Amino acid sequence: MSLRNALCATTALLTLAGAATAENLVIATVNNGDMIRMQGLTDDFTKQTGHKVEWVTLEENVLRQRVTTDITTKGGAFDIMTIGMYETPIWGANGWLVPLDDLSEDYKVDDILPAMRAGLSHEGTLYAAPFYGESSMVMYRTDLMEKAGMEMPAAPTWQFIRQAAAAMTDRDNDINGICLRGKAGWGEGGAFITVTANSFGARWFDEDWNAQFDQPQWKEALEFYTGMMAESGPPGYATNGFNENLSLFQQGKCGMWIDATVAASFVTNPNDSTVADSVGFALAPNSEGIEKKSNWLWAWALAIPAGTQKADAAKEFIEWATSQGYIELVAANEGWANVPPGARVSLYENPNYKDIPFAQKTLDSILAADPTDPTVDPVPYVGIQFVAIPEFAGIATEVSQEFSAAYAGQQSVDEALAKAQALTNDAMEAAGYR
What we know:
Elements: H1 3-13, E1 24-30, H2 33-49, E2 52-58, H3 60-72, E3 80-83, H4 87-93, H5 114-119, E4 121-122, E5 125-126, E6 129-134, E7 136-141, H6 142-147, H7 158-168, E8 176-179, H8 189-198, H9 216-232, H10 242-250, E9 254-260, H11 264-267, E10 279-283, E11 298-303, H12 311-321, H13 324-334, H14 345-349, H15 351-354, H16 359-368, H17 392-407, H18 413-430
Parallel strand pairs: 1-2, 1-3, 8-9
Antiparallel strand pairs: 3-11, 4-5, 6-11, 7-9, 7-10
Helix pairs in contact: 1-13, 17-18
């Protein structure tokens, strides 16, 4: 599609007659590549609507703190917030978000992937629109895998991953066999170790909301992770999150990286990645003998805080930024490989996108993630890399800090787990769960 036609497609989505005056919208967002790209295209939105956009772009942990503080204190600093599947249903239930139940017919809300719509709704009402959706998967260097004399299975085990990581590690040439998140934060390293633990048979809570960090599955998962990273991970991995590992992989310093499927377009982009022509993909691993894989389900989505006085203009922006037309606009400017993935059914039916190397693996990973059945043993919660209760963000941030201290060698795995067990049970008791 030509740029001219893409612009026309986005224009068709907007009902400009209703915009009596131009507004200045303040948007809080995360400093991920797709959001940075969106900022570069917002002149298109301003030309169509007259509304101007002021961006507040923050590191992931800081973003979560800022928007949570703002919405719970009714601070009113933002007209649009970038939030995810954890916050949206909880905040929607509390009346803190503007319902997105009156989006235009041209927006085609039914085209949003069912998993994304469900995760961003409360009691059937959509409260945030997905800018992109993701699961997690293995991204690996095909050249280094071949050099190691190994072949990546379509669905590897953790045991294979550890063996391959050791074989690909070349300290003399600054190549780490594997790069993974260790950074503290419930949505950073906390998310990654939670899904890893799921795949070893662990869970956050039993059916009576008792913390489970004193169980052998957690010890096995954490010892496996720290052992593998000591053998084959980069120095200082305890402070590495999504962006740090992305940079390492693009520089050719990682044999494997297991993280968000959305990263696929960045590691295969020859303008940014030195290894773009030698990247393969596989499903997130499971541990031998356990079927649960270590993949999550997430969407970075745009929502409107209930306190804004600019809800109509904010909805216009959300329609623009999360529409089929926006996808076509990105494709016209950046190519189909760089469009926001994982949000719309039509993208995976589009012949221009079907042959993108990571497209099907991304969709398969998303479809394989079930937030209602995240663990081997039964649990009282919904969520894969998070527990969908209001208290989780605070608890999991503290737990992730203890784990990161273990990664950094500041305490043992046993000490970290004991502290996680105690602080989680104390918090749940204080909150009335136990």
